[in-house]
Amino acid sequence: MRKLVAFFMAVSLLSSCKKEEDNEIKTEYLPLSIGNYWIYKDFKIDSSGNETANSSLDSVIITRDTIINRKKYYVLEGEYYPFNSGVWGIIDILRDSSGYIVNPNGTIQFSENDFKDTIAYNITTNMYNGDTLVVTTYQMEKPDNIMMVPAGNFEVLNYKGTVTTSMDTPGIEYPRYLNTYYAEGVGKILYTYFYIAGSAIYEKRLLRYHVN
């Protein structure tokens, strides 16, 4: 149950607070082109700040495009350890909508120009009684520091999730934060996840990439 809750908390968005509108504005913070790929190395960081590199590598590639509701989306396939046990499959389906990256449900996963609003949120409920367990709200921010990953050093924008929970988590303080950093002309260079009842933070850091 805990892993299931963490999965939906960390990688799933149920609703968006923005309406899609299309024009010629396109973001370069997630280059959407067939053949683009990104490879990530997974790290575990314990509550004392000690890092351990996991043996797993995540590969993500844009394999094709598809039409949904008369709009063109790009299909991202790859491995998404640990949530799909390293089995190759579709990770996401995305399009650029006026500088926002959205999925077919209209859920916003990035914006390069909206730094004031809550642009998306995720709610996880108890499957038995419907009570709210976890709430995550997402806003964009501009970090001042340069982000360093194995693939290089980058100026970034952060799609930041603020996580609150009604679950009993002894020794763990909430809110906690999910950070997803994007670099212009590159894409997603680092993103974090954690388990609700665990103190460790996990980071996926960009190892190498190719963009057309």
Account of the 3D structure:
This protein has one domain (2-210): YmcC-like fold. It contains one helix and 15 strands. The protein is mostly beta strands.
The N- to C-terminal Cα distance equals 41 Å
Fraction in helix: under 10%
Class by SSE composition: mainly beta
Strand order of the largest sheet: 1-8-9-12-13-14-15-2-3-4-5-6-7
Shape: globular
What is the CATH architecture assignment? Beta Barrel
Beta content:
over 45%
What ranges have pLDDT less than 50 throughout 5 or more consecutive residues?
1-24
Number of domains: 1
Q: What is the number of helical segments per DSSP (H or I, 4+ residues)?
A: 1
How does the major sheet shape up? 13 strands, antiparallel
Overall pLDDT score: 88
State the order of secondary-structure elements, H for helix, E for strand.
Answer: HEEEEEEEEEEEEEEE
At the first level of CATH, what is the class?
A: Mainly Beta
The count of DSSP E runs of length 2 or more, i.e. the number of strands, is 15
Q: What Rg is obtained from the alpha carbons, in whole angstroms?
A: 17 Å
- CATH fold assignment: YmcC-like fold
